[in-house]
Amino acid sequence: MVHEPPVVPEPRTVPRATLPSRTGLLVFQPLKRRHCAECRRGPLPLLVLEDGVPRCLDCADLGHLVFLPSGDTALTRRSREESVLSAVIVRFNRRKSRYERQGVLVEEAALARAEQRCLADAEARRRRRVRDARRRSAQDALFTQAFAAEIRRLFPGCPADRARAIAAHAAERGSGRVGRSAAGRALTEGAVTSAVVASVRHLDTPYDRLLMSGVPRQEARRRIAAAVETVLRGWTEAGLGSAG
């Protein structure tokens, strides 16, 4: 009868089934007090397991590396790309029964090069944001001008400065107002008229005071409807020649 050789369990120090997928070296943050099996120093904040026994970073020839904590994915990736020698630091989470990454050990010069690459990227992103903001500002200025011109076309009696103010308010980026809607972007008559009506309602009638006094919105609109219509009719019938 052939006997199977006994199965030797792995050291309990590292339950390998719980280790994160990796390429390269692993360094552990121990939960218990550990001493180096070679130089006897300890307790060790970080250790390497060789043949199931702990060794300090110096004895494992990793003492010259510097610690980069987790958090900046781009910096971590680039530091490992730049570093000839690197290691992943893990710590056992008892509640989750698994090892979790705490950071990496990389060469100091490699970390410096990676930081320069990230800074260059950050500067490039900043410049792109500035360019984008300038482009959006120019687009918004052109759109506001077109919106104001459409107001003056539909309501030639509307003063020019009032038309510009209505257009700027309605077309403010991120406001959600009518000027930012699809109809507003298309300069439809309905959207432009809605912007003008809203302005007249708030600035040329007692609408806001009615709301503050507790009058329901629909009732307040009913009360000031005639005043709004009077202003709009005046602006419509004034004619281009009398526009201010």
UniProtKB/TrEMBL annotation:
State the organism of origin: Streptomyces coeruleorubidus
Give the taxonomic lineage as stored in the record.
Bacteria, Bacillati, Actinomycetota, Actinomycetes, Kitasatosporales
What residue stretches are annotated with the DUF2293 domain? 150-235
Supply the InterPro entries for this chain.
DUF2293
Q: Which domain of life is it from?
A: Bacteria
- Protein name stated in the entry: DUF2293 domain-containing protein
Q: What Pfam families does the record tag this protein with?
A: DUF2293
PANTHER family under this entry? DUF2293 DOMAIN-CONTAINING PROTEIN (PTHR38113:SF2), PTHR38113
